[in-house]
Design goal:
By secondary structure, the protein is an alpha+beta fold. It has one domain (5-163): 2-Layer Sandwich (50s Ribosomal Protein L5, Chain: A), CATH 3.30.1440. It contains three helices and seven strands. The chain has helices spanning 20-33, 65-78, 149-158, and strands at residues 5-14, 38-41, 56-63, 82-83, 94-98, 118-125, 162-163. It has a five-stranded antiparallel beta sheet, covered by helices on one side. A two-stranded parallel sheet has the order 4-7. The two termini are 28 Å apart. The relative contact order is 0.22.
Length: 164
């Protein structure tokens, strides 16, 4: 029950505006993940950036299972299989950014789309975590069942990634 597993990977691109720019970014996420991409909407008004609530300002896709494992290995190669300790949070999740999508070997450069980066957020869990998320008979989980920062670093080291 103490083995750490990969729960999901969330790929996110923030654009700041709707339109053609957002559609171009969505194409890259679709090509990388092979699944449908969802547009994200602003929740707050930020007048200096001309952002209103409900305005589409980004895109994301969530990957689970075998597809997530395969994609994570590809994305870690793009950052030379190295992560910093500051990439990990207290709950055992970690995230990192890819500065240019052309760093990912599986994606071909398209001059029509331009060059941009995206964020990768990885969520880890232990077996039995579903008890806190289910709808019927929901209950709390003990502290031993939560993933710690150190356990997350050990999990990622088993994949051949160095944490510096």
């Amino acid at each position: 029950m103490n083995t750490v597993k990969l729960d999901k990977i969330t790929l996110n691109i923030g654009v700041g505006e709707a339109g053609e720019k957002l559609e171009k970014r969505m194409k890259i996420l679709e090509e990388l993940s092979g699944t449908k991409v969802i547009k994200t909407k602003a929740k707050k008004r930020i007048p200096t950036w001309n952002v209103r609530p409900g305005m589409e300002i980004g895109a994301k896709v969530t990957l689970r299972g075998k597809n997530a494992e395969k994609t994570l290995k590809i994305l870690l190669k793009a950052v030379d299989n190295t992560l910093k300790p500051k990439n990990f949070d207290k709950q055992g999740n970690f995230s990192f950014g890819i500065k240019e999508y052309i760093d990912v070997k599986e994606i071909q450069y398209n001059p029509k789309l331009g060059i941009f980066g995206f964020d990768v957020a990885v969520t880890l869990k232990k077996p039995g975590y579903r008890v806190a998320q289910r709808k019927i008979k929901k209950s709390k989980i003990g502290k031993k069942q939560l993933v710690t920062k150190e356990e997350a670093q050990e999990f990622i080291k088993k994949m051949g990634v160095t944490v510096e």
